[in-house]
Amino acid sequence: MYHFCVSPIYKEFTGFWGFDQLWEIIRTQNYEALLTLKGIQAFLRPLIPVLLLIEIIRGLFYRRYSHSQHKISLFTYILNRFISSFLSIAMVAFCIGLFEPYALVKTTLTWYWFVYGYVIWELAHFVYHYFGHKVRLFWCLHSTHHAPEYMNLSVTYAHFFLEAPYTDIIRTTICILLGVNPPLLFLIMFIDGTWGAFIHIGENLLKDGRLGFLNKYILTPSHHRVHHARNPLYMDTNFCNLLNIWDRAFGTLQDEKQSMEIEYGISRPMKKGDFLDAYFGEIVALGKDVYHAPGLKDKILYIFMPPGWSHTGDHKTATVVKADYIKEHQQELSLGAKP
């Protein structure tokens, strides 16, 4: 019985660090495998967990660590491992099988189709992410990721368990229909997933997240810190993951301003450090709004309108809050501090 209980926990613990494939290469001394795609993946897979450990150790050393900074993310990761291990990959496989026959173009695993595929992937990511902020129902799933009032690598594990399936339905469908074939898609997903985790790196490990000149050309940890901010000017910005092409195209790119301290978290008042409030709070709030809405039309609108929409007309959406802020601080922003 003891072995039955401990073995799965041990596998989960060791699996989290991602050393299993790399250890197998070392054990068999098959170092040529490191030159293959699977070998590169095996080498990079432990990167984020190891950086997270270094981030925590560094925080302890400089006395900037608090267990509350990781509690929500840790509990979210544990819960999601129990209830959603296979949902996401199942949705990806389903969408590939359903939509691949209808692809508009046929691509191969070459460098120019890789560039094309990455641009399409970023479009798909932008669409999913934009709706995650602009549709109340989707925000209920995405808000768990924005609930922590801090930024560190553990935040990358803080997601509502249903977010991954609906995310991959949107992203995979768009990519497959626009011709990104499965091998190319999986390569891009691995690269983008690694980068998407890295950009959550906290100030304990990387004080300035701009990454020098790269800040002009890609989305850096600095951009993603802005995305996680509840400052009015920063709301609903930087939806892409690595390439900023679609944020530039749709006017949602926002650089970090040195004069503005980032306030992490969501605008709804929360119980500080409360996992259940972070995980289910927005769903409860939506349920209350729908229940108290005066008619069927308003009940439906609460589900699909942006967070902050109200049937009374007293809207507190990100668009309204940002517009009011810019109007109030117009002179200050026009003189503004350099980003």
UniProtKB/TrEMBL annotation:
Pfam families: FA_hydroxylase. It is found in: Endomembrane system. Its main location: membrane. GO terms for cellular component: endomembrane system; membrane. It is a multi-pass membrane protein. One of its GO terms (biological process) is membrane lipid metabolic process. InterPro entries: Fatty_acid_hydroxylase (IPR006694), Sterol_desaturase/TMEM195 (IPR051689). It comes from the Bacteria. Keywords: Lipid metabolism, Membrane, Oxidoreductase, Transmembrane, Transmembrane helix. The chain crosses the membrane at residues 43-62, 74-99, 111-131. Residues 114-252 form the Fatty acid hydroxylase domain. One of its GO terms (molecular function) is glyceryl-ether monooxygenase activity. PANTHER family: ALKYLGLYCEROL MONOOXYGENASE, STEROL DESATURASE-RELATED PROTEIN. This is Sterol desaturase family protein. It comes from Spirosoma foliorum.
